[in-house]
Sequence to fold (164 residues):
Amino acid sequence: MPLHSDSYYKRIADDALRQAAIEEPPVPLEALAERLGIPVRFTTLPLFFGGAIIAEDGMPVALVNQARTEDERRRTLAHLLGHVLVVLADPDVGYPRSTTADHREADLAAGELLLPEFLVRDQAQKWFNDHRYLARLFGVTEGEMTARMRELGIIKARGVLWDY
Fold:
């Protein structure tokens, strides 16, 4: 398996969002899954279980635990879509089938699906870097939004970067 940088996995997710013409938050993950041809099935599972990709007639199906909170379901679906996007980008990569497998690539893609750089930058400018409002808009916690805005250089450790 070839080695790829973190930005490679984020770019896979970014490309999928742009191809789906998603321009407003929150990212409609179910619609993105549908566009990728991946059915999403919500079913009640034990609480310790978030979701899985299962095969149905040789094709992937995202199985998501409806007993979890909406935030957890969104994160789970983003993670599952991350796995699918990684496999679509490189067919030699297989979906991890064990609980000890590395899920880092899917997590990187999922993070970009939930908080895409191009949307965060655009909305931050429109809403004057109001991280509280942006967190609600994107359906994430304030801590997650603040971390993403710091990662993108929109806000600094000691305050907001006012560039307009």
